[in-house]
Amino acid sequence: MSSINRSQLIDGLRAIAVLAMIAYHFAWDLGFFNIVDPVLVNSGWWKTFAVSIGSSFLFLSGISFWLSSCKGINFRKFIKRFLILISAALIVSLGTYQADSNTFVFFGILHLLSACTLLGLLIYRLPSTLIILMGLSVIAFKPYLISDFYEPKYLAWTGLYSGSTGSVDFYGFIPWSMAYILGLGFSKIIFKVKEEGKWINNFLFSKSRDNSILTKTFFWMGRNSLLIYLIHQPILIGLIYTYMNFFML
Question: Is 70 exceeded by the pLDDT of residue 201?
Fold first, then answer.
């Protein structure tokens, strides 16, 4: 997203989602290494927590797409950003395949965001009401879309595959794209960049007057969520591995 159309509010919300993601993945990693009960961190409240984090990232990404495209798309920047996103998704796939080929991430949240970015390019000019209806229809019509056609595992990315994917991080296009589509649709109503009044402009796009290191770091996390997504798990796993081998003797 260009600096012109960056929203301090969205950066802050994304930073909160990043912190929540790190907290959840730390708990998941503890379960993976059997330091805590793995069933506990993969069910109940923790499962709901994980779903809410993924949904919030997708919803905020839909909003960000509109903010960066409402005054026209800079296709040079769009292609650059898209290639970075695709490359990051491939890094995740290759890295997890190297770790365990049976559970590797073949369609995680970055793969889904790549697909949704292309979808956003096709629908962002549509009326906001129609976009919102499209988002709701993704979940409403899912039961009617399931058929034997999607039984081959290579179609699992659609979200209509009835078997187990085995992936440690799977975000099927249906229904997860709903959050992205709704973010895009609602942002066209809420922001109304071309017609917004002074008060909403100041609220959404004003810069924080707090220049403390903590505040700068917080908003930096929101602006660099992709980088943090790629590096946080190796760091967490490294810390846990170090703790297990040097402090749990």
Answer: no
